[in-house]
Amino acid sequence: MTERSGTVALVAGGSRGIGAATSRLLASLGMRVVVNYRSSDADADALVEAIRAAGGEAIALRADVRDPREVDELVKAVSARWGAVEVLVNTVRIPFAIKSFQDMSWEEFGGKLHDEMLAAFTLTKAVAPAMIDQGYGRIVHIATGLARQPRTEMIALGTSKAALVQFARYVAQELGPFGITVNVVSPGMVETDVAGKVSPQVRARLVAATPLGRIARPEDVAGVVAFYASDESGFMTGTYAPVNGGLAMD
């Protein structure tokens, strides 16, 4: 993959899981990585130290990306240090209720939908003006296969991510003329702390139904994100990339 040395990449939710794997990979490709996090100071600091020890450039900046004021301050801080954000990766993990529709309240369902879209909208809104000015930008959002393939008790997550996918398409259409691409990476289950909450029986069924015979690793997802963040993907926008080992062949 061609390196874009010095490219400024903001990885929202970048301190753990898919975000951390993405931060490490983008840094290894020569990008200057901003590890955004909300509460995991120790994880963010440890990740930045590891990236620097490997010869990469990274900083950790705290911000709740559901708060437009905090996001504005985040982007200003990045610009003051390294210049405009050229790559935005939204890996933010927002908590959600695991319940059936019949047992779920509007506060649980609507809260997840609201927070998911507020984060995506706020982040994209904050970086778009500078990307338009420079005639270049890469935006990548992380969704889930549940946006297309419903599963019991996952209605809040699946619906909010389906909205995110459609949001990305509309933004891709609008920002394309300015040299900005917007794409979605959609993993199945990934080996993170969230996967640890799944019962062994459900996990075994998923592995058995997956042609490649395992659960995805964060690095599997990060590799596809890095492709979308690179110049090799420059003529792809509004696309949806499943990373699920063949579990669902869209």
From TrEMBL:
Q: What InterPro entries does this protein map onto?
A: NAD(P)-bd_dom_sf (IPR036291), SDR (IPR050259), SDR_fam (IPR002347)
Taxonomically, the superkingdom here is: Bacteria
Q: Which residues form a coiled coil?
A: none
Q: Which family does it belong to?
A: Belongs to the short-chain dehydrogenases/reductases (SDR) family.
Name the UniProt record assigns to this protein: SDR family oxidoreductase
- Its source organism is Dactylosporangium maewongense
